[in-house]
Design a protein that fits this description.
Elements (H helix, E strand, L loop, with lengths): L1 E3 L7 E4 L2 E2 L3 H7 L2 E4 L5 H4 L2 H15 L6 H20 L9 H35 L5 E6 L5 H6 L1 H7 L10 E6 L2 E2 H4 L2 H23 L4 E5 L7 H11 L5 E4 L14 E4 L2 E4 L1
């Protein structure tokens, strides 16, 4: 795989000697999992960040149901628009019923798919988290499938807010260590370890399913980890396939890499 970036030319990608036509084709041909410091939002931020992360995981682990989050989101959007029209007196309650039914049906499917993904990811996540020094790590889905009767029971409130106030677009996935919510009670190192354990868990699942180990790209993954966790992570990365790790200096790498490239302004050289 070769990707060329230039200031005065378009991005080019070559796979096995042949040009890749688009980023979509590249994503389809080469499975890549990425860690960047902003991925800590999966633990540190609100429920929306976790929903988005696990819905992307759903798309990779259960590709046949990858479109469920989009279809459900579209149904919620249509129901919200129908609520606004109804509140303004521009339509009748009958026009809302089909969208309420769709939100209930697709929402139930989405909750089931998310729970299935968590059942697959959670034990592998716990295993990798323990390997990295985070004990008794677990994932817990928080939310129930939306039922038509429940959506109809809160119609007055939904009309006041012009928004659907029930369903998986409001659910969360709790990330825990020994029953402590890592979002509130986890240290920076524990939060980073949890995100890395999630990435390793997904890589393990995809490798077991397809036989191809994903390429891992880890940007500044080692900072805020103590020396012991750095060594544990480096040992694990040496067992999962090809990984590219960036660090501010070679001294941040606890184990010798297979290849070391030093980057300075305008230059990249083998070190």
């Amino acid at each position: 795989m070769e990707v060329t970036l230039g200031l005065r030319e378009p991005k080019r990608a070559i796979l096995n000697g042949a040009a890749v036509r688009s980023a979509e084709q590249l994503r389809g041909e080469l499975t890549t999992l990425v860690f960047t410091p902003d991925r800590l939002a999966v633990v540190k931020s609100g429920p929306a960040a976790r929903r988005a992360y696990f819905d992307r995981t759903l798309g990779r682990v259960l590709p046949a149901r990858a479109d469920l989050p989009l279809r459900y989101g579209a149904a919620v959007g249509q129901r919200n628009a129908a609520l606004r029209r109804l509140a303004a007196g521009l339509s009748t309650a009958d026009s809302l019923e089909p969208w309420t039914l769709q939100v209930a049906e697709l929402g139930t499917e989405l909750v089931a798919a998310r729970r299935e993904v968590l059942e697959l990811v959670a034990p592998v996540f716990e295993e990798h988290a323990l390997e990295l020094g985070l004990e008794k790590a677990s994932l817990r889905y928080e939310g129930e499938p939306p039922a038509v009767r429940d959506l109809e029971a809160r119609l007055t409130r939904d009309l006041e807010r012009a928004a659907t106030g029930l369903g998986p677009h409001l659910h969360d996935v709790a990330m825990l260590a020994a029953d402590r919510e890592l979002r509130t009670f986890g240290s920076q190192g524990e939060q980073r370890t949890a995100v890395l354990a999630l990435l390793l868990a997904e890589a393990s699942l995809l490798a077991a399913r397809d036989g191809d180990v994903p390429l891992l790209l880890l940007d500044d993954a080692l900072s805020e980890l103590d020396a012991d966790r750095r060594r544990r992570l480096s040992r694990r990365l040496g067992m999962v396939g090809q990984t590219v790790v960036t660090a501010t200096g070679a001294e941040a790498l606890p184990l010798a890499p297979a290849q070391l490239v030093a980057v300075t302004p305008g230059h990249a050289r083998s070190a």
